[in-house]
Design brief:
With 75 residues, this protein is α+β, with helices and mostly antiparallel strands. It has one domain. It is built from two helices and two strands. The chain starts with a helix and ends with a helix.
Length: 75
């Protein structure tokens, strides 16, 4: 929090423009460039479809390629 206060103080003193970026869900905005599949996560298993796998349309946290795909999207 000290860093945030320092930056806001500098912005005000220097007359700079300050922009905010919400990165809480940033990785989820990346696009998959190849097919990826996952099994049903624990706690969300359907008793009717125990062997079903799902094709991902967007990135998920924990995928090794998620940060790289997100970076390529913003660049």
């Amino acid at each position: 929090m000290t860093t945030v206060r320092t930056i806001v103080t500098l912005v005000g003193a220097k007359g700079w423009h300050l922009y905010q970026m919400d990165v809480k869900n940033a990785i989820l905005q990346g696009e998959l460039d190849e097919e990826a599949f996952m099994i049903q996560p624990l706690g969300f298993k359907s008793t009717k479809h125990l062997t079903t796998v799902y094709r991902l349309e967007k990135l998920l946290y924990g995928l090794k390629k998620a940060p790289r795909a997100w970076h390529s999207k913003i660049t």
